[in-house]
Amino acid sequence: MATLTSGNCVECADVSRITSVLPTLLWDSINYPMTTSPLHLSTAIILTSSIGCWFLSVMMHNYSQVDRLWSILPVLYAFCYAAWESFQDTRLNVIFALLTLWGGRLSYNFYRKGGYNLHDEDYRWPELRKMMSPFLFQIFNITFIATYQNILLFLIVVPVHVCWLSRNSTPTLTTFDFVSISLFLAFWIGETVADQQQWNFQSKKYQLIREKKELKGDYAKGFLTGGLFRFSRHPNFFCEVSLWWAVYSFSVAATGVFFNWTIVGAILLTLLFQGSTNFTEKLTLRKYPQYAQYQKTTSRLIPFF
User: Fold this and answer.
1) What's the rounded Cα separation, in Å, for the pair 99 and 151?
2) Within this chain, do residues 79 and 52 fall inside the same structural domain, yes or no?
3) Is 16 a member of any domain?
4) Are 68 and 149 in contact (CB under 8 A)?
5) Do 63 and 147 fall within a single domain?
6) DSSP string, 71-111
7) Domain range spanning residue 222?
8) Model-level pTM?
9) Average confidence (pLDDT) over 10-30
10) What pLDDT does residue 152 have?
11) What is the mean pLDDT of residues 48-53?
12) Over the stretch 56-91, which tens digit does the pLDDT of each residue have?
């Protein structure tokens, strides 16, 4: 039984003391990030971005605010760590360079699809709103869309924090670093090719529709089954997820330990893509009935013959 003191339990007093400290911690993380570590600076960015995305989504009734930051924030986090060491740490510089390459390509692909149009919204959010009450969707918005996704965008980069902590013990690149670089570039190339093949197909399909020409093959089906999409229904998704496992492997190279806490980012991203892929395929199947046959003959994510 809890001990009582002047009508208040000790536990309540402890909670009160903890609660009184939280505003100070929050203020320190925002106001003095550059005096502690890049982790504090990253925390301030997460908090600012989450609040900003939520506010804009409510004001504009457009819930794709985080989507516009998806290819930018990870690069910014990597920059914070590399800049913290004045770009003198080779491993941090390599990760920053690779993520800049990743972010540049993804930003361009997002741009050419109209993603940075302020009135454009991911087609899945309107569909999801139809399935939820306005109140529940707003709860989903503030918890998952605006907050969780912003946290996830840092967690997939957080292996760089382990690399930063190990900067003095393993200052030079190891063989495992070069394996990580090779894997990252291989998946980056795979995703680039898959996105370009999808772009070419969709552009040609809509051109044929505009010109009212006969649609044949995949154009008649409405979806692409050739190229890399012959081996996986979502080769770009597979490469994107795998690319972040390659980022995690840099923390392995820095520490020599195969499992550390920063693996949580790669795991959560993998789970997110599993759920996202399921939802995407339900919508695709509803739009294109022949997609069911494609599902029977082609691997879902992992490329397979």
Assistant:
1) 17
2) yes
3) no
4) no
5) yes
6) TTHHHHHHHHHHHHTTT--HHHHHHHHHHHHHHHHHHHHHH
7) 169-305
8) 0.84
9) 47
10) 97
11) 94
12) 999 999 999 999 999 999 999 999 999 999 999 999
